[in-house]
Specification:
Belongs to the SIMIBI class G3E GTPase family. ZNG1 subfamily. There is one protein chain. The protein has about 375 residues and is α/β, with parallel strands linked by helices. It folds into 2 domains: about 190 residues, P-loop containing nucleotide triphosphate hydrolases (Rossmann fold), CATH 3.40.50.300; about 90 residues, 2-Layer Sandwich (Hypothetical Protein Yjia, Chain: A,domain 2), CATH 3.30.1220.10. It contains 11 helices and 14 strands. The strands form 3 sheets. Strands 3-2-4-1-5-6-7 form a 7-stranded parallel β-sheet, with helices on both faces. The chain is globular and about 55 Å long. About 20% of the residues have low confidence. The chain binds guanosine-5'-triphosphate.
């Protein structure tokens, strides 16, 4: 593993600030040689011209299609060619950064590193970094599906253009991003200005990386389960179907109140953060009972076969029968990996799995997982 070349995938919607971040990384004094793969959508390689060039750097531009669909094979080819050049001594680099086009869903890019045998012999994904623009991010998330997927896949979310907006907008956007992807820390990053350690060597795909989930998120997720399940009826008279549009910010609720964000309504519910109809959302499974390994394995296989395309990232610390060690597992779409970790020791064994996906049937999945418990 130590010999594999780490690869950082930078994603984010059009104009979010990816190239600005990349330039920042390339000019920073980190003493590392970096090869860059740029994916442009269209004929002109504009970003390539915008990148600060350093003689040591290999910059490959792929502009004959979108990296996520039409040219995944080309990505693998480029990666292998780079590796051959490194072996011959005509290219020197210790890591690779891929900047995807703003329109790409980064899932297939990440998958290339797991599915292409040759590529996976040389490279490993270190992390997916998603740049979200604080000025336009909210609207982009409302309107653009790939932008949502980019958030769902992220190991880190970098918030750019915070200098251009009020702090309330930033807070609301952060709350929304956190709801969509509670795994990824959100870091402010004006003009690409971020500590390099937040971007490189983050080990986002390491199985032994901790599953740190903010306790507030877990609490909120539980409360939400108690209140507004899909299809639930709220006492204010609204049917809370999955689109969460019950109290649209600035919307008129049938209980007769105009609900500003953060208000407590006379129907008794506190309408905290604006509820967006996000395609991508996260939920958590928790239980103190152990899993039966065979049942869980078979359930997860079926689940990923059916919902794999919509399962962006999932990761869990598992309590299994037959071992006193923690089992760590994670996956991207259909690809899963699991490994035994350290013993539970003094810690009370418990299961915690976070799923981030596109309109996943939360209730059914949680129930399905329950059936895999001993
Ligand atoms: N004020 C401000 N402007 C920023 C910030 N980050 C980026 N910009 C500007 O936003 C514009 C777009 O930035 P880019 O880095 O080119 O964005 P990109 O994501 O690479 O864009 P595409 O390649 O089109 O997808 C540029 O004019 C940047 O100077 C920031 O934090 N604050």
């Amino acid at each position: 593993m130590d010999k594999l070349i780490p690869v950082t995938i930078i994603t984010g919607f059009l104009g979010a600030g990816k190239t600005t971040l990349l330039n920042r990384i390339l000019t920073e004094e980190h003493g590392q040689k970096i090869a860059v793969i740029e994916n442009e959508f269209g004929e002109e390689s504009i970003d390539n011209d915008l990148l600060v060039r350093n003689e040591d750097e290999e910059i490959i531009t792929m502009n004959n299609g979108c990296i996520c669909c039409t040219i995944r094979g080309d990505l693998a080819e480029n990666l292998i060619r780079l590796m051959e050049k490194k072996k011959e001594g005509s290219a020197q680099f210790e890591r690779v950064i891929i900047e995807t086009t703003g329109l790409a869903d980064p899932g297939p890019v990440a998958q290339t590193f797991f599915m292409d045998e040759e590529v996976s012999q040389f490279y490993m994904v270190d992390g997916i970094i998603t740049v979200v623009d604080a000025l336009n991010g909210g609207r982009t998330l409302d309107e653009q599906e790939p932008a949502q997927a980019q958030v769902g896949f992220a190991d880190r979310i970098l918030l750019s253009k915070v200098d251009l907006v009020d702090s309330e907008i930033v807070d609301d956007l952060c709350a929304r991003l956190h709801r969509m992807n509670p795994r990824a820390p959100i870091i402010e990053c004006n003009m690409g200005n971020v500590d390099i350690r937040e971007v490189l060597d983050i080990h986002g795909f390491n199985l032994d990386a901790a599953l740190e989930l903010d306790p507030d998120f877990l609490k909120e997720a539980q409360e939400e389960g108690e209140h507004h399940h899909h299809g639930d009826h709220c006492c204010c008279g609204h049917d809370h179907d999955h689109n969460h549009d019950h109290h649209d910010h600035d919307g008129e609720c049938s209980c007769g109140h105009h609900h500003e964000e953060g208000e407590t309504c006379s129907c008794g519910h506190h309408h905290h953060h604006p509820r967006h109809d996000d395609e991508i959302a996260a939920f958590v499974f928790e239980s103190d009972k152990p899993f039966d390994p065979a049942r869980l394995d078979s359930y997860m296989r079926t689940l990923t076969q059916v919902y794999g395309p919509d399962m962006l990232r999932y990761k869990g610390v598992l309590y299994m029968t037959g071992t006193d060690r923690r089992m760590i597992f994670q996956g991207v779409h259909m690809l899963m990996a699991a490994d035994l970790d350290k013993p539970w020791g003094d810690q009370k064994p418990t299961n915690k799995i976070v799923f981030i996906g596109r309109r996943l049937p939360k209730k059914a999945i949680l129930q399905g997982l329950e059936t895999c418990l001993v």
